[in-house]
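Quick review question:
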């Protein structure tokens, strides 16, 4: 819709008028999205502007999980965006989900993160890799309000996934799980998790398996909410698994498939975190432009000071490059593309939020007034270089696949 309006309206416009149309829409690249993706973008944008954005500061200050907002987002269909319609989803493509996550994160990074992880790391996993029985049990309710989690990290194994210690022991028609998971997003509010465990630590990555585990199962203990620097309304906590008995029917794929499943899901998860980072960066750019337009220094608006204009230009370039790589990764999914998108989007969001703080001067640092919001972009942006896989690992992955393509490993 937006794209076709632009095409129609640009027919008789000159270049500067075209730029005005683009600026009035406050975004670019929309012309490359198809009708469905544009409709989802509009849906998420409208919801964000009218309902989510006005509440974000309060949610962050109070560190309150966005229950009400997630319920509304569920009603929009976005908690099962890519899930087959037969299981209550919208059956959309990854790019539609990514643009929705970007818009939601622009308004409230915590909400955008929770939506991203639920969809890309849990719902899509069950939808694409689950049996019909698993989908009935672990998917249908999860497009209607239940929240799903992804429990891979452990206290002694974050980046080093093959070294996880949570044990899975087969006992007849059951598997018994024992161990500790850490940093599980939304586990306090969640109803089930994809849990990764080893059935033979000697086998390293070949010994991993993935289980769908109800979080109210006997032996599952949820830890306290981790106090976070950013995305404070989102939650992450430890999960302790003490002799948790799960039916063999809850095993995803076969024993030994766990590492592949985790890596394939992280390829998607990184698109989600990249989109989330683009949303945070866009919010910081919007904030900085709006402030610079009305703040006067040396008898001029800040926008007329060359150094501020330069900063805003840098910010725009950082946002756009991150968005392009993210959209590319969402349409052409590969480890190299999603790692590159996450690497660039996380770093760029942090840099853009840093510029934003600078343009706001003292107000950029203040936790008083409304300006707390602006410093919040900075706090929120930083985490995008950590969760979903640290920036350093993304760089290594890009390098690995680059050399592999050139037969130079
Ligand atoms: C808010 C939040 C939410 C999270 N949600 C989830 C979730 O839902 N599910 C989940 O499973 N996990 C989750 N995590 C965990 C997250 O994925 C890990 O924190 C992350 O993968 C890094 O692991 P680590 O913290 O153990 O750091 P480490 O692996 O100990 O790494 C620390 C640092 O060492 C360096 N480093 C380590 N290994 C390498 C390497 N091979 N090459 C180069 N440098 C390296 C990097 O600089 C890295 O930043 C979350 C984390 C946070 C903070």
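Suggested answer, residue by residue:
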């Amino acid at each position: 819709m937006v794209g076709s309006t632009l095409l129609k309206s640009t027919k008789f416009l000159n270049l500067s008028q075209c730029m005005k149309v683009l600026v009035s829409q406050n975004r670019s690249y929309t012309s490359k999205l198809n009708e469905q993706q544009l409709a989802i973008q509009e849906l998420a944008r409208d919801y964000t502007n009218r309902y989510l954005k006005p509440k974000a500061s309060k949610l962050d200050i109070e560190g309150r999980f966005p229950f009400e907002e997630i319920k509304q987002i569920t009603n929009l269909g976005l908690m099962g965006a890519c899930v087959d319609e037969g299981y209550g989803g919208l059956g959309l493509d990854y790019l539609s989900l990514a643009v929705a996550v970007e818009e939601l994160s622009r308004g409230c990074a915590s909400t955008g993160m929770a939506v991203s992880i639920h969809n890309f790391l849990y719902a899509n996993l069950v939808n694409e890799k689950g049996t019909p029985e698993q989908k009935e049990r672990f998917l249908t309710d999860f497009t209607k309000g239940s929240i799903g989690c992804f429990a891979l990290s452990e206290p002694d194994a974050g980046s080093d996934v093959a070294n996880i210690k949570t044990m899975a022991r087969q006992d007849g028609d059951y598997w018994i799980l024992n161990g500790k998971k850490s940093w599980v997003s939304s586990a306090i509010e969640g109803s089930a998790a994809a849990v990764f465990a080893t059935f033979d630590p000697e086998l390293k990555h070949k010994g991993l398996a993935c289980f769908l585990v109800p979080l109210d199962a006997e032996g599952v203990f949820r830890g306290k909410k981790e106090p976070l620097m950013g995305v404070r309304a989102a939650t992450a906590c430890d999960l302790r698994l003490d002799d948790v008995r799960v039916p063999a029917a809850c095993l995803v794929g076969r024993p030994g498939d766990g590492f592949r499943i985790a890596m394939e899901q992280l390829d998607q998860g990184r698109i989600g975190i990249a989109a989330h980072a683009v949303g945070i960066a866009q919010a910081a750019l919007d904030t900085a432009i709006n402030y610079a337009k009305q703040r006067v220094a040396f008898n001029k608006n800040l926008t007329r000071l060359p150094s501020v204009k330069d900063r805003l230009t840098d910010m725009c370039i950082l946002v756009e490059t991150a968005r392009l790589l993210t959209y590319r990764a969402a349409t052409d999914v590969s480890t190299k593309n999603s790692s590159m998108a996450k690497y660039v989007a996380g770093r760029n969001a942090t840099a853009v939020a840093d510029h934003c703080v600078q343009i706001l001067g003292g107000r950029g640092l203040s936790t008083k007034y409304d300006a707390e919001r602006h410093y919040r972009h900075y706090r929120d942006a930083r985490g995008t270089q950590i969760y979903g896989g640290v920036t350093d690992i993304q760089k290594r992955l890009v390098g690995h696949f680059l050399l592999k393509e050139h037969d130079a490993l």
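Why it works: The beta strands are 148-151, 167-171, 174-185, 192-198, 208-214, 220-222, 236-247, 251-252, 296-297, 300-301. The chain is about 55% helix and 15% strand.
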